Amino acid sequence: MGQAGPQHQVPHEVPHENRKPNVMTDTRTVSVLGTGIMGAAMARNLARAGHTVRAWNRTRDKAEPLAADGAHIADTPAEAVQGADVVLTMLYDGPAALDVMREAASALRPGVAWAQSTTVGIEAIGELAGFAREHGLVFFDAPVLGTRQPAEAGQLLVLAAGPSASRQAVTPVFEAVGARTVWTGEDGAAGSATRLKLVANSWVLATNSAAGEVLALSQALGVDPQSFFDAIAGGPLDMGYLRAKSGLVLGDQLSPAQFAVATAAKDARLIVQAGERHGVRLDMAAASAERLERAAAQGHAEEDMAAAYFASFEGKPED
Predict the structure, then answer these.
(1) d(CA 113, CA 110)
(2) Which distant-in-sequence residues (6+ apart) come within 8 Å of 96 by Cβ?
(3) Are both 276 and 148 inside the same structural domain?
(4) With bands split at pLDDT 50, 70 and 90, how would you rate the model's confidence at 318?
């Protein structure tokens, strides 16, 4: 789809607050395992808040830039967790998180708090919590809501479940990476925070798919997308997120990704599986997963999930 001219632009993203200033707080030594889009931003904000950060990523090149922010870059997960007060995992999925923690196991101290922020399925939470019990770790189910921009600004919404008696260990960490923490329960193993994250992501993915189809249909019917946005402006059908994701497509701003197609496809499948496990058929989530997977197969895997727009076309859409 061709770029819109200035008069047709839609906001790039929902506005967010400015980056947090450097603030010394109740400091911790935090091991950040996984420094992709979200993990790297979280590590930077932890360092900015005065915490000692030990970072590791399977592809070391993705972690190296954090050295300029004062982080120690570790060669192995075991090296990264040495001396840690809190271990923060932000990896691809549940199996990846479990594999990495197993690699770190020899250096984990009993009593260390583990803030598990990877988006995982309901089954995986039980497996991860089981690992924590075996190694005497204090487990916090702590996924986050937000994409690249709020992550970089330290404005994520942290969804967390874990024991009240130990929350002081992770509170400074959550305050450094997020604007707010919503506590969903005392037992991280129950996965109440992950369940809420899956519900929230089901809405995000449905809206993203709807935005892509609106733009694709506009393209097919020769309708200027701006006329649609003008028609719904200010009414109950208007939505900042719709405009933000549409703006990424119209403005050819799909890279760097706010939330990548491949990761969104993984999350969509987790949502479908959660529904199936509880006897609920989630047709929209299944369709979103299929659209995202088609877009990935077309070469858009690392672009923003708004690139699911391209899944509406067999080939390249006409300008």
Answers:
(1) 9
(2) 34, 118
(3) no
(4) low
66-119 pLDDT tens trace: 999 999 999 999 999 999 999 999 999 999 999 999 999 999 999 999 999 999
Same domain, 152 and 295: no
Contact 66, 91 (CB under 8 A): no
CB-side neighbour CA atoms (13 Å) of 83 = 10
Q: How would you classify the pairing of strands 156-161 and 144-145?
A: antiparallel
How far, in Å, CA of 226 to CA of 233, rounded? 10
Asked, for residue 158, whether it belongs to a domain, the answer is yes
- Candidates 308, 288, 286, 313; CA nearest to 296 is 308
Helix, strand, or coil here: 180?
strand
Q: Residue 73: give the domain boundaries.
A: 29-190
Q: What is the model's pLDDT at position 176?
A: 98
Average pLDDT (59-66) is 96
Q: Are 182 and 195 in contact (CB under 8 A)?
A: no
| φ, ψ of residue 214 in degrees (nearest 5) | -60, -45
What's the chain's Rg over C-alpha atoms? 20
pLDDT, tens digit, for every residue of 148-206? 999 999 999 999 999 999 999 999 999 999 999 999 999 999 999 999 999 999 999 99
- Return the amino acid letter for 28: R
**Residue 13, CB half-sphere, CA atoms under 13 Å: how many?**
14
Q: Is residue 269 part of a domain?
A: yes
Same domain flag for 234 and 210 = yes
Read off the tokens for 292: 């995202």
The answer to whether residue 13 is domain-embedded is no
